[in-house]
Amino acid sequence: MSWVLYWIGLFRLVHSGVIIMSIAFSKLEDLAIPNGTKPSNAIIQESIDDAVAILLIAPAALDGNTYVIQGRRHGAATWVTLQEGIIGVALADVNAPAAGKALCYNMKDFAFSAFHSFRINSTVNVGDALHIWEAIKLWEGM
Length: 142
Known about the structure:
It is built from 3 helices and 11 strands.
């Protein structure tokens, strides 16, 4: 019986002129830090303009380094580390997900798309292997 009510409600919604939005996803290029370096490659703004969130999936194993999210300013070659928290209180750097973990970054909170591009940066040179984070964009579609 409940499925009948669901379909009646959906029929009314569709015929009321309301557009039903859903969340879609698409794979972005991986963010990879080569052995012997600190920064990963970058994902540019044009790739994530319509994103509502970015999902990063860490490799199964990482060394003991700290990995932060950085954004590049428009018209500048400098990178800044994103921070989060309440203004007036100690802020914390925004970290990439730890080994074997995934983290979804909401664009309303982290605003990666406000930068020219974003990347992952290690505090020291990666010394044991190539580290690759899978990146996925979530966006609203119909």
